[in-house]
Amino acid sequence: MSESRQDVRKTYKLLINGAFPRSESGRSYEVSSAKGDFLANVAQGSRKDLRDAVSAARAAQPKWWEATAYNRGQVIYRLAEMAESRRAELAEHVGLAEGVKDGAAKSCVARSIDRIVWYAGWADKITQVLGGANPVAGPFFNFSLPTPSGVVAVVAPQESSLEGFVDTVLAPLVVGNTVVALASEKRPTPAVLLGEMSATSDFPAGLLNIVTGFTAELTPTLAAHDDVDGIDFEGVDYEDATQLAVLAAGSIKRVLRPAQGREVSALRRLRAFVDTSTVWHTVGQ
Amino acid sequence: MSTAPLRLVTEEDCGVIISGANQLASIQSEAQLVAVLTSLSGVDAVGAEARVAKLATRSIKKSTKLAAIDLAISMVDLTTLEGADTPGRVTSLCTKAQRPDARDPNVPSVAAVCVYPDLVAHARTVLGSSAVKVAAVATAFPSGRASMKVKLLDVADAVEAGADEIDMVIDRGAFLSGRLGQVFDEIVAVKETCGAAHLKVILETGELVTYDNVRRASWLAMLGGADFIKTSTGKVPVAATTPVALVMLEAVRDFAESSGRLVGVKVAGGIRTSKDAIRYLVLVNETVGSTWLGPDLFRFGASSLLNDLLRQRLKQQRGAYVRADEFSGD
Asked: ipTM of this model?
């Protein structure tokens, strides 16, 4: 083969309902590396893409929650297996996007994959931690059980392109929600790669949907969308999140606002998008 | 880009046409019927599909979209045709038909509710003097596999129970094996039995195989006295499609030009989204013109479509996407 082979350029597309469409709008935007070099053309999602992603997530949610907790854990663990064999590719993109050296990028990827495994483990443990058996004055058992909110929108962190994405997305997933994630605007490629890996793992279609595009343009649509049950504003400025929370209030969503300057603890993320349902049961026969 | 339909028929035009020689006024023999039907030109299938694909790209936005949604709501035949239908279900359907959005009185009522004949009397009682019509599927719906006597009894029964409209099915077996006279006679007999009730003739286009058959069956039904021709029962895998609707609308247009009688079209089965509904409205406007844009001459047979229309209506007003379960199921 001749030396002057033409590179096959990759188009970074959306992940909606298990498929990789371009944006419905036909738009794309240019993403640069941290150094300012051209990195990729990425689909610029529109509000209609978000609409489609939310319907896909809504359709997938009951089945995901009906699966056993053990099975949910296995499905998420499978994502770690997929990511493990593509560590080099992820590390390259994290390095370019975040402008960190090779070694730092590699350990970031390693931490992210370990984090996926850690979240997978939570699937069949969260009920013990957040649930409980309540004492009641009568011959009844009374249990509180954490149940998922439903469809959760995640505005992923702008800076931490992979580790932060894993944190914000997997926490709602593992407790039984389905997710529509808006990837980091300027550093979307690691998230898109992880999305591709999820499609070759055991993730059912619609479980995780990833839209890339302009955060300021797309977040209000997600915040106001009636069919979204919760929203994580991690990737939004603190002040903007206040404004957006007002939009979210219209449909009484659960809102997780960024903690100013501090990191939101993993346990807080895990419990951010669960409701508690109470079950009564008679004691004895 | 010209948006004017090729030949727009208005009621005034029809007066002129009627005054001319009208050889389609009555079909006397099967030979005459076959002669009329075989004289119809074939349908350009590729052309029809290309035409609807082109029209489907037309963008209807903002206030036009709102108007289209309201128009579509007013054209819906809210349908429940399940073995599990109960009077309770029909009651809630009728309530919803009269006031589709309980919170917004500005939403028009739908055109009709469509039920099995045994539930007509109940629907009639619930609807009372409301403008919403009661339509009944009769003639051994959906297969049409019963004797003529049974079919006519079925129709008479529904009419007596208070049905304003009868949706009959044609005998597809007879049509496909060339017994056109038999199909024609059935339609004529059913029309007679209907009395004042409107007759919609279901062609079940999914079983007619070709567009040419759809065109012939449309003409056959119209010659037999149909007030409406309807695409499908909704009980076979292939239901209403836009090319089939185009063929039927063209037949209706040509029939109006040659006979002076305006026949309506009802598309039914598989129409679930507002986008689909609006595409049909565009197709109607571009093929037969705005005369047909009303519940008297165009209908949607649907159940879940209404909820999507209401959702899109609310979305236009609120500016935010609406939950799928915002409106009660039926």
From this structure: 0.79
